[in-house]
Amino acid sequence: MLLEKELQKVHEQNHFAYTILRPAFVFGPYNYAPRESWFIQNVIQNHSVYYPSDSTGHFQMIYVKDAAEAIIRCIQSEKSHNEAYNLSAPEVLTYRTFLDELHNASDVDFTEQNVTVARSLTARIPFPFPLTEAESELLDGSKLTDELSLTYTPFSEALAATYRAMKGIYL
């Protein structure tokens, strides 16, 4: 938020239009960040993934194609001038719901290795999403829907498309 305040200050001095975009976890094919791809790689190569069974964390995501569409809509609409938008699909996920959707998207049977949050920290298992309630932060992405008519791709559909695109990389 500090940079946003600085931007607004400079805007007041120089009178230019700006748009602030605050993304949740961006995901999709060829993601540079090892988030969903970490799970997909383990499904394809190991037929197994870690599951933090006592995790209380929750999170939201934005499909990369939806993020790109949001950027296009902001560029094309003066309504977005001097506004801030959260880029976040409405579904609130947990590791359980994420893995359930991955099971649905995958054409490979895979097992889940239950691990506690404490054990995952000592074993340095690189879980990419919040593990605890305290680490969790949710965003309301409805302003983009209301003001710029953005429609978010359902998580199940976006994850399935991501899985199909990424599968060949890990074979």
Automatic annotation (TrEMBL):
Coiled coil: none annotated. InterPro entries: Epimerase_deHydtase (IPR001509), Lipid_A_modif_metabolic_enz (IPR050177), NAD(P)-bd_dom_sf (IPR036291). Residues 3-87 form the NAD-dependent epimerase/dehydratase domain. SUPFAM superfamilies: NAD(P)-binding Rossmann-fold domains (SSF51735). Gene3D superfamilies: NAD(P)-binding Rossmann-like Domain (3.40.50.720). It holds the Pfam family Epimerase. This is NAD-dependent epimerase/dehydratase domain-containing protein.
